[in-house]
Amino acid sequence: MPHRPLRVLYAFDNRVPSAQADTEQLVSNASALSRRDLDLTLLIPRLGAELEGEAIREFYKTSGAFGVARYTPVRWPRVGQKLWAALRVTFSRWARDADVLYTRNLPVAVVAAARGHRVVFETYRPWPDQYPVLRPIIRRLMRSPSFVGGIFHSELARDSHARVGAPPDRLLVAHNGYEPSRMLPVLSRRAARERLDLPADRPLAVYTGRVAEGKGLDVILEMAGRCPKVSFLFVGGRGVGPFERALDGVANVSLAPWQPYDAISDWLYAADVLVVPPSSAPLERHGHTVLPIKLFSYLAAGRPILAPATPDVRELLEDERNALLVPPGNAEHAAESLQRVLGDAEVWARLAEGALDTAKGLTWDARAERIHDFISRPGG
Fold first, then answer.
1. Is 181 helix (H, G, I), strand (E, B) or coil?
2. 243 and 171 share a domain?
3. Which residue in 123, 287, 307, 370 is deepest, having the highest Cβ count within 10 Å?
4. pLDDT tens per residue across span 292-308
């Protein structure tokens, strides 16, 4: 009998494409999975951006062969949209034809499992810790005979779900990754700055990602005040908000707009140091950032990284080996650490080499291979 690829319906409930990190993760993961022996269809809401698969892949500068299907959403509050997606997706013909329904939407996973669909649930959030009311629902889902497994972006998220009684053999930690093609060409700091018309004679600390409140960027701004001889560059501006207005008049701070996915590497290569906001707010107070996706491109760029010593970040970054880890919220300590790495060529080279070494194996293709093996395992 000829081999038939596993049919996977990958359901998502937000706009695609967009500049949001969750859609970058979604499409990068879907692309990599579709490069495996999988017949994958991305099911997303019809929200006015009616691009087909090739156009979506071009937006994210990735490759693969997934199909695209769309369902009609509703104009309800966000929770209502997720509940509607649970009904619309699981009762669809695409779900009936699929061997596995793969989703990051908890209501979709719960309803699909209840209807007997084989379900893979992926998440970056420690839901049982953040919302204890969900614990019985998550326990029931992960003990369901229809539950193939959970894919978690961090040990932090996996452990949260394991504590509610999920079978350990159904839980896989699969850190996110980076796309090697987006990191080409590899540039020296000087060459990158020439391409971007950035000054070559000042040390440069770079942050890339969403420029908004709640990201801990206020700590970087305070660092800038303590390091007047260092230039700080925020790459990812999308308008004029409270944080952008706070930058006005700060002599050593500049803002660049959001960059296409194949252009961001130039900005990474231009940096002397790459900064993850040294704050615990995104993880502890807001709960929406666990192992930020920018970290994987940071590592692949081979530049020293300054980051907070939070539980999620410590899964990949080791102080003095591939990064300098600082107490969250302590701008004084962070500024001192930044000045240290900028002033010590030996430390700079050691951290840069450690970052490149850590990046080995953290590609989207390597992640997809692990997930494919996991969801295809006997009894899975």
1. helix
2. no
3. 307
4. 999 999 999 999 999 99
